[in-house]
Amino acid sequence: MHLEHLADGMDLPDTADGLSIEGLTADSRKVQPGFLFAAFKGSTVDGVQFVPKAVEARAVAVLCATNAAEAVRALVPPTVAVLSADEPRLTFSKMAARFYGRQPDTIVAVTGTAGKTSVAHFVRQIFQAAGHPAASLGTLGIIKPDGESYGGLTTPDPVQLQKDLADLATEGIRYAALEASSHGLDQYRLDGVRLTAAAFTNLGRDHMDYHPTIEDYLQAKLRLFSELLPAGGHVVVDPGEKYTDRVLAIAEERGLPVFTVGETGKDLKLTGLRPSGAGQLLTVETSRGEYKVTLPLIGRFQVSNALIAAGLAITAGIDAGAALRALENLKGAPGRLELAGTTPAGGMVFVDYAHKPDALDKALAALKPFAEGSLSVVVGAGGDRDPGKRPLMGEAAARHADLVIVTDDNPRSEDPATIRKAVLAGAPGGLEIGDRAEAIAEGIRRLKSGDILCVAGKGHETGQIVGDTVIPFSDHDSVRQALNQLGLK
Ligand SMILES: CC(=O)N[C@H]1[C@@H](OP(=O)(O)OP(=O)(O)OC[C@H]2O[C@@H](n3ccc(=O)[nH]c3=O)[C@H](O)[C@@H]2O)O[C@H](CO)[C@@H](O)[C@@H]1O[C@H](C)C(=O)N[C@@H](C)C(=O)N[C@H](CCC(=O)O)C(=O)O
Ligand SMILES: Nc1ncnc2c1ncn2[C@@H]1O[C@H](COP(=O)(O)OP(=O)(O)OP(=O)(O)O)[C@@H](O)[C@H]1O
Ligand SMILES: N[C@H](CCC[C@H](N)C(=O)O)C(=O)O
Ligand SMILES: [Mg+2]
């Protein structure tokens, strides 16, 4: 693609004349001949220092911040085109969108502290049920009709994301749902994605290692509504959740159509909710009348997630009746309040991805009514992540569970015992078992009839990160092994 087209609207140096760009990357290690290299100041290093490496690998153009342009020009031969922008990550994302070109016609995005993966997973299923081949992109990677691929980040870097979207469009997938993480929004990874609708689930404490304040964290999330969603794009929220007033204020200011769900919502108004076996019976009032829906999932928060997902699908053009009927067959996202095993005595073991205080609070509150006996939890907190959440997670665990077993969850570069101590500060009577498999086994050994154990924090993960090493580990496998060891199935 010609650089003039890729850099549409930018001031270009003479060296850009007729220059063809073969690909683009912000990582010097991925530069190939004919590439544009984007040199960004990152959270650990300044990409400008890798410009010589990029040129050595035969990059023909460099994009950088306006205030770094002079330094970059001094590092490159005169034939290399240097482009600059005040917000280079934003420019880069738009370039990636132009380079890859195609995207599914209908893309909806969801942000919020908890529920993104679940909502994206549900929206994909609703699109599918309505007869449209669909994909979801997020923490679980890409899930589409003919397979799954795991990527690592919830919101991939813009080059990967645009390539993924173009591949999906080429495969004939016209509907997609994606998770917008606060890191992704803050780093402009999603700018350039053509959105139809966007939803906000909720906001709680998370990523305080990255965002200096809750307000900064909220501001990153609000970009989805103030900057990414185009005019005419629908905003979907459950107004019962804190901070939705901030989302609605943006919608009002921009004149964006709003679709509200839940008890205080207007478009899908929840007028009745009661448990029904291992699911919940919802009464939903719509402009087309009342619907009774049996949601085959437990947990109050799944009701909110399901209605938000239906709202996204409906605003994207799916018939309201079809969307609500599809909720009756929803499958929960793997590792989200998932029943992982049952002892013959009737003790149940759930695996859940709660790794922040609010999520743990909600997950345990959801399980509590099903525990005829005691509720116990195996929980830890990640290393190199917000230390402030550790005692709060201990507190949330102790508030609901009769027994709290504190264990390790991706200690990364930190001392695991120090992390456990911080969690135990919030759950003083807790039992400390560092080895996660042993903690799970002990939790299972103690289960009696009618008891429930929640293994929290890792959900779908398949590794325990210790130092720089990822040791293969799965909560599901550990549960299975512990049940087998007891001679149980
Ligand atoms: C803190 C953070 O988000 N970092 C992300 C960010 O890196 P950065 O720009 O800060 O990187 P840096 O290491 O300082 O490097 C600066 C620049 O130099 C470049 N570089 C670096 C080394 C080199 O040899 N050559 C080179 O060109 C880098 O590619 C980068 O462009 O941009 C990179 C490219 O997009 C990401 O891979 C990287 O994610 C790191 C690996 C990460 O762990 N991110 C997590 C925290 C994250 O993004 N999580 C969210 C939220 C998950 C949730 O929902 O909870 C997610 O969306 O997954
Ligand atoms: N709407 C919700 N409100 C509160 N907690 C929730 C909600 N939805 C899910 N949870 C809890 O949060 C955990 C993670 O859910 P999910 O993966 O859907 O969220 P996420 O926003 O994608 O999280 P992450 O940012 O970690 O990828 C679940 O296992 C559950 O414990
Ligand atoms: N995307 C989140 C996932 C955390 C999962 C939990 N198991 C942990 O390691 O803290 C993060 O990287 O902070
Ligand atoms: Mg997620």
From TrEMBL:
<dbReference type="GO" id="GO:0071555">
    <property type="term" value="P:cell wall organization"/>
</dbReference>
<dbReference type="InterPro" id="IPR000713">
    <property type="entry name" value="Mur_ligase_N"/>
</dbReference>
<feature type="domain" description="Mur ligase C-terminal">
    <location>
        <begin position="335"/>
        <end position="459"/>
    </location>
</feature>
<protein>
    <recommendedName>
        <fullName>UDP-N-acetylmuramoyl-L-alanyl-D-glutamate--2,6-diaminopimelate ligase</fullName>
        <ecNumber>6.3.2.13</ecNumber>
    </recommendedName>
</protein>
<feature type="short sequence motif" description="Meso-diaminopimelate recognition motif">
    <location>
        <begin position="409"/>
        <end position="412"/>
    </location>
</feature>
<feature type="binding site">
    <location>
        <position position="385"/>
    </location>
    <ligand>
        <name>meso-2,6-diaminopimelate</name>
    </ligand>
</feature>
<dbReference type="GO" id="GO:0008765">
    <property type="term" value="F:UDP-N-acetylmuramoylalanyl-D-glutamate-2,6-diaminopimelate ligase activity"/>
</dbReference>
<dbReference type="GO" id="GO:0008360">
    <property type="term" value="P:regulation of cell shape"/>
</dbReference>
<feature type="binding site">
    <location>
        <position position="457"/>
    </location>
    <ligand>
        <name>meso-2,6-diaminopimelate</name>
    </ligand>
</feature>
<feature type="binding site">
    <location>
        <position position="461"/>
    </location>
    <ligand>
        <name>meso-2,6-diaminopimelate</name>
    </ligand>
</feature>
<feature type="binding site">
    <location>
        <position position="189"/>
    </location>
    <ligand>
        <name>UDP-N-acetyl-alpha-D-muramoyl-L-alanyl-D-glutamate</name>
    </ligand>
</feature>
<dbReference type="InterPro" id="IPR036615">
    <property type="entry name" value="Mur_ligase_C_dom_sf"/>
</dbReference>
<dbReference type="GO" id="GO:0051301">
    <property type="term" value="P:cell division"/>
</dbReference>
<dbReference type="InterPro" id="IPR013221">
    <property type="entry name" value="Mur_ligase_cen"/>
</dbReference>
<keyword id="KW-0131">Cell cycle</keyword>
<feature type="binding site">
    <location>
        <begin position="112"/>
        <end position="118"/>
    </location>
    <ligand>
        <name>ATP</name>
    </ligand>
</feature>
<feature type="binding site">
    <location>
        <position position="181"/>
    </location>
    <ligand>
        <name>UDP-N-acetyl-alpha-D-muramoyl-L-alanyl-D-glutamate</name>
    </ligand>
</feature>
<dbReference type="Pfam" id="PF08245">
    <property type="entry name" value="Mur_ligase_M"/>
</dbReference>
<dbReference type="InterPro" id="IPR004101">
    <property type="entry name" value="Mur_ligase_C"/>
</dbReference>
<feature type="binding site">
    <location>
        <begin position="409"/>
        <end position="412"/>
    </location>
    <ligand>
        <name>meso-2,6-diaminopimelate</name>
    </ligand>
</feature>
<keyword id="KW-0460">Magnesium</keyword>
<keyword id="KW-0133">Cell shape</keyword>
<dbReference type="InterPro" id="IPR005761">
    <property type="entry name" value="UDP-N-AcMur-Glu-dNH2Pim_ligase"/>
</dbReference>
<keyword id="KW-0132">Cell division</keyword>
<feature type="domain" description="Mur ligase central">
    <location>
        <begin position="110"/>
        <end position="313"/>
    </location>
</feature>
<dbReference type="GO" id="GO:0005524">
    <property type="term" value="F:ATP binding"/>
</dbReference>
<dbReference type="GO" id="GO:0000287">
    <property type="term" value="F:magnesium ion binding"/>
</dbReference>
<feature type="binding site">
    <location>
        <begin position="154"/>
        <end position="155"/>
    </location>
    <ligand>
        <name>UDP-N-acetyl-alpha-D-muramoyl-L-alanyl-D-glutamate</name>
    </ligand>
</feature>
<keyword id="KW-0436">Ligase</keyword>
<dbReference type="Pfam" id="PF01225">
    <property type="entry name" value="Mur_ligase"/>
</dbReference>
<dbReference type="GO" id="GO:0005737">
    <property type="term" value="C:cytoplasm"/>
</dbReference>
<keyword id="KW-0547">Nucleotide-binding</keyword>
<keyword id="KW-0067">ATP-binding</keyword>
<dbReference type="Pfam" id="PF02875">
    <property type="entry name" value="Mur_ligase_C"/>
</dbReference>
<dbReference type="InterPro" id="IPR035911">
    <property type="entry name" value="MurE/MurF_N"/>
</dbReference>
<feature type="binding site">
    <location>
        <position position="187"/>
    </location>
    <ligand>
        <name>UDP-N-acetyl-alpha-D-muramoyl-L-alanyl-D-glutamate</name>
    </ligand>
</feature>
<keyword id="KW-0573">Peptidoglycan synthesis</keyword>
<comment type="similarity">
    <text>Belongs to the MurCDEF family. MurE subfamily.</text>
</comment>
<dbReference type="InterPro" id="IPR036565">
    <property type="entry name" value="Mur-like_cat_sf"/>
</dbReference>
<dbReference type="GO" id="GO:0009252">
    <property type="term" value="P:peptidoglycan biosynthetic process"/>
</dbReference>
<feature type="binding site">
    <location>
        <position position="28"/>
    </location>
    <ligand>
        <name>UDP-N-acetyl-alpha-D-muramoyl-L-alanyl-D-glutamate</name>
    </ligand>
</feature>
<feature type="domain" description="Mur ligase N-terminal catalytic">
    <location>
        <begin position="21"/>
        <end position="85"/>
    </location>
</feature>
